[in-house]
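#structure-requests
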Amino acid sequence: MRILAAMVLGAMVMTGCAGPTESAQPVADGENGTHVGTDGALAAPVEAGVGLVIGAAQAGQIVVVEVGRRFAVALVGVPTAGYVWSPLAAPDFLSRAGEGGGPTTAAQNQPGFTGGSHWEILYFVATGPGEGQLVLEQRRPWETTEPAADSFAVTIRAR
């Protein structure tokens, strides 16, 4: 029991020591952004030509993007229940450049599968250099007086 407690404590300390990142890693690594993991999990289906994908792991961090290049923010959501990710705040040097989505597991591609979480992908382009916070909220658009179900924030540094 003490060994298990020490292992859990060690894992918590190691994850808490990670500092801000200067770049994000691509989430997608297969054809058309799909990749089936050993557990049936699918990577975010990011459009071809998008080299930088920001995911939940980069929350609260600094991510460097190139001016003029499209990048994606890929988060898991529940759009089948009406909850969608949308920008609450974005720096003036960022412009929306599309959106997409797809299943998070291979099982969701089977006939008759209903519900479940889905990838929601928002594309942006940095139109000039700068640094500022991109804040997204997950909410039902028609529930304007309800608090957001979730939020995501990342600092974008465009060079």
